[in-house]
C-alpha cells in the first residue's frame, strides 16, 4: 500500500490551522451542528488515545541501564504525533458542539484551552523541536486536567 504524500498531510494541517484562526478571530465557535458521538465516546475513542500517544512519546524514563530520553526520532514518528495533535485541535471544536457543550462559560473555555494547547504540540511537532514539544505536551496535560477537575466523566460501574 503506498504511503500518503506529505503534501496531503500538510494540507490537512493547513486546513486545521485556518479553522483555528477563524475561531480565534470570530469571537465564538460555530455550533450549528449537533454531536453524533457521546462525550464519553469522543473522550474514550478519540481524545484520550491521541493525548496519551503524545504524552507517551516524550520524556525521561529510568531503566536498569540509566535514564533514557524519549522523543520522536524519525519523520514518520513526528508526523504521527503531529496528526494526533491535529486530531486534538479539532476535538476541542467537537466538544463545543450543541448537544455536547455542558455550559457556555467554563466548558467552552476549557475546550478551547485543549485546542490551543494541542495547536502548540502540532507546531512543535512540525518544527521537530523536542523541547517545545515536551513543554507543549505539559500544557496539553494542564488543559486536560483543568477540564477534568470540573467535568470528569465517571466510568459506568
Structural class: mainly alpha
What would the average pLDDT be, to the nearest integer?
85
| Number of helical segments with 4 or more residues | 5
Shape: globular
Q: Biggest sheet, open or closed, and with what strands and sense?
A: 2 strands, antiparallel
In total, how many domains does the architecture comprise?
Answer: 1
Q: Can you write the helix and strand succession as a string? A: HHEEHHH
Task: Count all strands and give the number.
Answer: 2
The fraction of residues in strands falls at 5-15%
CATH topology term: Four Helix Bundle (Hemerythrin (Met), subunit A)
How large is the radius of gyration? 16 Å
Beginning-to-end CA distance, first to last residue: 42 Å
Strand order of the largest sheet: 1-2
Q: Kindly state the percentage of residues in helix.
A: 55-70%
Low-pLDDT ranges: none
CATH architecture: Up-down Bundle
Written account of the structure:
- The chain has a two-stranded antiparallel ribbon with strand order 1-2.
- It has helices at 6-26, 39-56, 75-95, 106-127, 130-151, and strands at 59-63, 66-70.
- Strand 1 (59-63) and strand 2 form a beta hairpin.
- It has 157 residues and is mainly alpha-helical.
- The chain has one domain (6-26, 34-151): Four Helix Bundle (Hemerythrin (Met), subunit A).
